[in-house]
Request: fold
Amino acid sequence: MAKPHLTYKEALDYIYSFTDYEKQSAYRYAPEHFDLGRMERLTALLDHPQYRFKAIHIAGTKGKGSTAAMIASILRAAGYKTGLYTSPHLHTFRERIQLDGQLISEEAVADLIERLQPLVSQVKDLTTFEIMTALAFLYFAEERADLAVLEVGMGGRLDATNIVTPLVAVITSLSYDHTLYLGSTLPLIAREKAGIIKDGAVVVSAPQSPEAMAVIEETCQEKGALLFRVGEQWTWQDGEANLEGQSFTIHLNNPSRHVLRGAQQASEGGQGSAAPIVHPWYDFFSHKARKSRYWIPLLGEHQLANATTAVTVAELLPGLGVHISEKAVAQGLRQVRWPGRLEVLSRAPFLVVDGAHNADSAHKLAAALRNYFQYEHLILIFGASLDKDVNGMLRELLPVVHRVIVTQAQHPRATEAQSLREELLARGYEPLFSHNVAEALDCTLRLAQEQDLICATGSLFVVAEVREAWARRQGVELMERDP
Reply:
């Protein structure tokens, strides 16, 4: 790689100079703004890098990042050169694009952007996320990744990542989020997420509400896709847990008896029009119930659903030409790292950060705090983005909270702390408040006793700033941080 003329900071400035929907709070989610044709034209100029590696594509409301990280860790443990593309990032853009667990280098970002610039100028109206995605695809292709695990940015149908034809399409837990853009009902949201399902695809779905699952099943039937349901064919049972992680057992319940009701209907002359597709992975199953025990360094019942989804993908991959041993599955799960999700930063008092940012994830967070921790009082540091269900999150969190301090991240989409304060006052709570996350942490640490628990949540941007502020308090600068 020749040394680029651009600096890393100049490359980032260039990327962010385009329309950046991650920093906008209101826009229309429609083809005139999210046009896959732009991505197709740009990647054509790059000689279609997305076809030069095998992909696993993941959409969902919650758990898609954790599930992506687990699948990537399993693939690395199996000896495959593995890319991982996720969003947003906590501290540095480089977190979004990883190869074999290593962040893309600053030099590689600068080099790739320098080469992309003349091509970007040939495609009108590209967005920041589209350029990021093209950069990731090109990086994985040129570094000769065997596989890449790709997390959808938002939605699925119109997402920039949706120009790939993956080995497996994964849909994690669906709930209400981005309702202004994706729809105000679960079927509408599910329709957008199911947009990643291609003709003849192999699809894995995490447990869903009946109305969301009905949409996924209908889409698979229309596409002649094979659908595997976590919670039916693969189930889990929790085991021992502590603040280091948790063990669990996954049961395989003879998938040949359950496989894709929709595809069976299509082959029998039902509504589906696609011809039935037979995949050789049937040979890799014993057709007898079996169980396997695993451990993950992540907390929360919801992570067991995510882990079972990741294991299901790993179980299917051998039938698609990617050999994964049972040892690699266990090793990959044990070694996964995904910061900012029920992450314990200190223990006296407890300081926990979690990226919950809708009502469903706040409900799961409240349950996990009760289940995993023993504490006297729970003090909440809370901030949110403008398009989030603040009412829903507070409804779930306030019953378990002793004190609240509201704050706002240094991000264009952050809800003002004063607005959050007024919301709490209307509910009969008198919160403390600070316009600065680091100051909010300082204030909370002064209030807390050793036997208390502090939890910072509501936004990954708040989580990132708490992690940075805590590192500074320990006299440590986070090494991976953008200038």
User: Anything to note?
Assistant: The CA atoms of residues 359 and 424 lie 16 Å apart. The chain has a mean pLDDT of 89.
